[in-house]
Design goal:
It is a single chain. This protein is mostly helical. The chain is 37% helix and 0% strand. It has helices at 12-18, 73-77, 83-91, 101-127, 137-151, 155-159, 163-187, 263-268, 287-297. Helix 5 runs antiparallel to helix 7 (163-187). The radius of gyration is 20 Å and the shape is globular. The relative contact order is 0.09. Residues 1-10 have low confidence and may be disordered.
Amino acid sequence: MKDNQNHPLTNLEERNAQLRADCENCFGLCCVSLAFAASVDFAIDKSAGQPCHNLQEDFRCGVHTNLVHLGFRGCTVFDCFGAGQKISQLTYEGNDWRQDKQAAKEMFELFPKMWHLHELLWYLSEALMLPAAKLIHPELRSMLEETERLTMLTRSDLMKVDVALHRMDVNALLLQTSELVRTEALRELKNPPRYPKKVGRGADLMGANLRGANLIGANLRGAYLIAADLRSADLRKADLIGADFRDTDLCGANLSESLFLTQSQINAARGDAATKLPPSLIRPPHWSRVAAKSSVQR
């Protein structure tokens, strides 16, 4: 691990490196620790703490290149925000769960905690890069440092952390950040957008036709956008934290300045070369194939 692992992640390049999954330095924890049920995303049931039958001895997935075809689409969109390598290489100092059977159960329980803490680090780091939230940057920086401190705790101390309670404190600051950024964005517009009906926090927009919609500065926190048509929509400065983008069509959409967007959300959606993404996110390789198929169908 890097020597600066315990420093606050306030630099975009550093954040991207440390808050992105590095499977080469992880013990396949997401393939063991987490449970999943047979569904459109997973072909089988798996209990928490039970290794996936596709996990190999070297902690790599034996069907990684064929996950979607075999019914494991959920694996392709998962992102641990770098928690896997933190637990594997720092918390457990490179001792894997196969070598230390006694620590295995504890390691599997700690992985979700670290995952959620790293997710909060992603959001806080982004918030600190937003000029419109400068007023609360000191509070954001303090919360980021506290969150990073929690990720550096010993196993026993990390086990005692109430992540849900900490998330509430972080979320209060993220809400303030969102309000500051979205308010400034709308103030700068000559003609503020009139959002389509039902657009809002936690809205049920499954399958909604929002093609070309002006959603600048919209609050779409926790919105259900499953299979929605957002082609060519403008989502700059829109708060997308927790929004469900499964099968959402983002072809040609502008998300270049969207707030609190994550790689897993993008991975779950459909897009193309014209989709504009924030610089911190990577264009999924499957987008070009899906877009080509979609254009043929339409």
